[in-house]
Amino acid sequence: MNMQYEIAKMVTNNQIPDEEIDKELALLSQEEWNEQCALLDKMMKEHVESCKDKPADEVMLQDLSYAGAANNVSETTMWIAYLKWMDVEYTVPDKM
After folding, report:
1. Which 3 state secondary structure label does DSSP give 73?
2. What is the pTM of this model?
């Protein structure tokens, strides 16, 4: 079980199979993903800042859905690609 996939599915409320995520991630080269994720990052930052009447998570999910559709992938796959682009890992903090 890939925990990053499971978290992304939970965040995007999508139960896409892991195999489908892997297929979608393979549709673009790393260079193409980098370009798309940079565009997504810029779009989300602008939209979250300008859409004060909506919760930030709602705005981000809309942007993920839009970017995913533009790249023929699910919003879940777009989220995973974006997190990888940001080099973010989910970790459990050490107990003090």
Report:
1. coil
2. 0.83
